[in-house]
Design a protein that fits this description.
Largest sheet: 5 strands, parallel
Order of helices and strands: HEHHEHEEEHHEHEH
Distance between the termini: 15 Å
Strand order of the largest sheet: 1-2-3-7-6
Shape: globular
Low-confidence stretches: none
Number of helices: 8
CATH superfamily: Thiamin diphosphate (ThDP)-binding fold, Pyr/PP domains
CATH class: Alpha Beta
CATH architecture: 3-Layer(aba) Sandwich
Number of strands: 7
Structural class: alpha/beta
Helix content: 25-40%
Amino acid sequence: MSAVEILVALYFKVLRVDPQNPRWVDRDRFVLSKGHASAIYYAVLAERGFFPRSVLATFDDLDSCLQAHPDLQTPGVDAPSGSLGQGLSVGVGMALAARLDAKDCRIYVLLGDGELEEGQVWEAAMAASRFNLSTLTAIVDYNRLQLTGRTNEVMAIEPLSEKWRAFNWHVIEVPGHDIRAVAEACTTAATITNQPTVIVAHTVKGKGVSFMEDDYRWHSALITDENRERALAELGAANGGRR
């Protein structure tokens, strides 16, 4: 839920895509590197019109096009993801391919902050700056929590912005739950030349549900009927009663 506004900003304000033609060759590309956030990804894709909202009810069924981690069989998905740390490398490859094909599409990769503990992320970061991939924008969902605790207790990643700058990336920090701020940061990223951009989006895990906010234990906890109804009631109240 920390990534809701980020994805809404991308799919409704930023990305050049066509829900009626998901494989349009000139579209912008998006990679959900933190693939375990697929549920919100699918919800946004459905709202954007890539497939009917009714399909969301089949999430993670064996014969569904909505698997627990993104898969290319899902309309609108540009890259599969599962094991963490690989998405930025995929984005680098996409940006290089677009350059070779003389396409002006932009590439966006959403990373988790705990995911930044993976060494492959920083190999990809080096490659992106080495090849001056200015069409590549990484977004870090910086909620400071991961599966087993707080990132600064599991494997500290600070100073985060300074690390990206040391890898020769342009850095923008934004409040990640502000759709306008995220969209404006992406607009700014598109004006940067000769280096990739990373948007460090400060977020809250479980945003919008009081008993889930900033609590890593909900990273993979089972939801009871009671908790689900309580969560939906809180989200509905914050959204004018709509559920």
